[in-house]
Amino acid sequence: MDFFFYPASVAVFGSFKRGAIAYEILRNIVEGGFKGEIIPVNPKGGEVEVGGKKLKIAEKLEKNVDVAIIAIPAKLVPSLIEEIGDKIKGAVVISAGFSEIGNVELERELVEKAREKGVRIIGPNCAGIFGVHADFFGSFEVRVKKGGLALISQSGAFGGAALAMGNEEGIGFSAFVSYGNAADLTESDFLRYFADDENTKVIALYIEGVKDGKKFVEALRYATAKKPVIVLKAGKSKSGSKAAQSHTGSLAGSYEIYKGVFAQFGAIEVEEMEELFDAAKTFEMYESGGGRIAIITNSGGPGVLATDKAEKLGLEIARLEDKTTEDLKSFLPPQCSIKNPIDLIADADYERYKKAIEVVCRDRNVDALLVICVPPIFIPSEEIAKAIIDAECNKPIIVNFMAGELVREGVRVLNAHGIKNFPTPERAAKALYWLSLRRAFKERSIRY
């Protein structure tokens, strides 16, 4: 499916009046810096100015292109596929009005026409696709920066909101696909594709339901063996399941079955959008981590909150080796607590943090560290950020700097060095939990 996410050429079909969906998609492609050939198509012809460029509108597609993006009335889509099928490899059908509103026969006709021509279909009733590393933004959603997260979304609106939120969270994306009714290509196809995509480090999946359970299980097994897969499953309740069926025409099915499959194959299931991006940030930094953790803080309260959350999640607050506690005693003020969680007290500076991280990191009972910083006004947060960056440690370090303006510069310094901040102790503890799940799954896979 490289032709979808790394295309050399694209044709966009629809109305190119300002504000029309086809116009907005065309604008996104042009302004996103796509370097391939771009052909707008409408039977009326003419010219369109978009993104500072004037493009001639073709009355019909005369050239071969990799991808067609189609935003025309649903009833006209099958005949268009029949007309252009010999000139395209794949089509992204934005148009709604198919099985999601009961037009099952129209959707079946679309798929039949596509298969006759050997064309793969994304959609219909979808929001489009991004191939971010190809500067290809074939959607009307907000553009994103390059990175390692591939987002697969059954819902276009959810996908759009998630992309915007990802920008706010500083997440980099490799790709985005909204697949809508999944008339041809499904979440299972995309799971397999992104599992092998070299620019994708982490896969995030929003699903309401699947059409082929066996195919999904096999695809999930394949993908999780290669990369972390984060899943946000909607339609868990009875009412939610009915809503999901009316939304995309898919069967949500029993949530307990999905839950069992996710657990069996080591997919990281999250409960809400905020968690989806926390998990994405976590796996962008580290592949996995053990469940024995050490907490280093300059404030007792957040350390206690992190401890409570960690234990509730089943993580182990590591018992530190005697040598570790002796080494900590050698340089920490007597007011500091050298038990885990380790409290460096409020005036902890660069040296105190750096030394503490290095000493604790050497402890054989510690798999991963949670470092908390609530800086007093007389210690700049960037000073503590540099201590974390400079500390010699080969184990996962999850960071919780809080809050707001007080830590803004420190968070910026951390981000510049690829270290993501988790705004609360509880969210930081959850990140360590996800790393431990991934480690446990990998160890289980090796044993079997």
From TrEMBL:
EC number from the UniProt entry: 6.2.1.13
Pfam families linked to this entry: CoA_binding_2, Ligase_CoA_2, Succ_CoA_lig
Top-level EC class: ligase
GO-annotated molecular function: acetate-CoA ligase (ADP-forming) activity; ATP binding
Catalytic activity: acetate + ATP + CoA = acetyl-CoA + ADP + phosphate
Keywords assigned by UniProt, alphabetized: ATP-binding, Ligase, Nucleotide-binding
InterPro entries per record: Acyl-CoA_Synth/Transferase (IPR051538), CoA-bd (IPR003781), Ligase_CoA_dom (IPR043938), NAD(P)-bd_dom_sf (IPR036291), Succ_CoA_lig_flav_dom (IPR032875), Succinyl-CoA_synth-like (IPR016102)
Highest taxon listed in the record's lineage: Archaea
Sequence ranges assigned to domain CoA-binding in this UniProt record: 4-98
Protein name stated in the entry: acetate--CoA ligase (ADP-forming)
Species in which this protein is naturally found: Thermococcus aggregans
